Structures are given as C-alpha cells and as structure tokens.
Amino acid sequence: MGQIASGAAPLDDNPGLKRALDTLEKLTSALRKPEPVRAVATENPVHVLQATTEAAFSPVQSDEETPPAPSRRAKAAASATPTLLSMKQASTMTTLSVSSIKRMMAAGTFPKPVRLGESRIAFVDSEIHAWVRARIAERG
User: Fold this and answer.
1) How far is CA 19 from CA 16, 85, 105, 114, in A?
2) Is the Cβ–Cβ distance between 33 and 18 less than 8 Å?
3) What is the pLDDT of residue 45?
C-alpha cells in the first residue's frame, strides 16, 4: 500500500486506477464533511463510486491502439464492390434447389451469373436480393 500512497509506478502505469483513487478520495472527503441539505436530489455517492471503479478497471485504449477510421473514399470503394454468391449460397438465400436455379437460368427467369472461370459462376448479391423483392411484390 505504501507504493500506491506515494504515487509510485503502479499509478503511473494505470491512469484509470489513478483517476479512480482520486475520485474515491474526493468522495470520501465529501462524505466526511457535512453538506447543507439541498432541495434538489443529488447523485448517490455509492453509484458514482461504482461507476468510477468500473471505468478505472475497463481497458483503456490509447491513441496508438485505436485503429484509424476508414476514409470516405475507402467506404465508397467497399460499398461499390459487389458481393458475389456461389450457386449454393444463392440456393440457400432463395430456398430454391440448385437444379431449380439452373432451370430458371436456362429459361431466363433468374438473374444472370458472373462467369469467374471455365467452370465457376457466381451471382451478384444485390441482384439476387432485387429478384427476391420482385417475387414478393408479385404476390399482390
């Protein structure tokens, strides 16, 4: 306890603990001094102490640890990039079987896939969502 009272290394390493101890000292000194009775209800010192203690022991992020927020250009690029779905994912999303999707593709009644390779196709997520919304709108 002698190290903490003298302000040695443990307080320097943990600014949250230092704030909590400072607040605790203020609260205990306020509790020792009788204050005049106010008409307005004041905050319960026990609740203030609990909140301060919780804040002191929660992890503190320094500016170095906080990841930088993505720029507007990065957000726009991320939102402009379409999400691709595999045949299985499109089947799951629409609750249609793979063979039903293939049959509808041949009839031209399902969104066209994007060819990614010789034997690989994918569907654009937003097009599948739009197709599902159109089916919902058709039910009248």
Assistant:
1) 5, 51, 65, 58
2) no
3) 73
Statement: the pTM of the whole predicted model exceeds 0.85: no
pLDDT digits (tens, 9 = 90+) for 96-137: 999 999 999 999 999 999 999 999 999 999 999 999 999 999
On the CB side of 107, CA atoms within 13 Å amount to 8
Domain residue ranges of the chain, discontinuous segments joined by +: 2-57, 79-138
* Residues contacting residue 78 through CB under 8 Å, at least 6 positions apart: 70
Cα(6)–Cα(9) distance, integer angstroms: 9
> Is domain 79-138 given the CATH code 1.10.1660.10 in the classification?
yes
What tens digit of pLDDT does each residue of 70-94 get? 666 666 555 678 899 999 999 999 9
Report the SS3 class of residue 17: helix
Query: 82 with 123: CB under 8 angstroms?
Result: no
Strands of the sheet with 114-117, listed across from one edge: 84-85, 120-124, 114-117
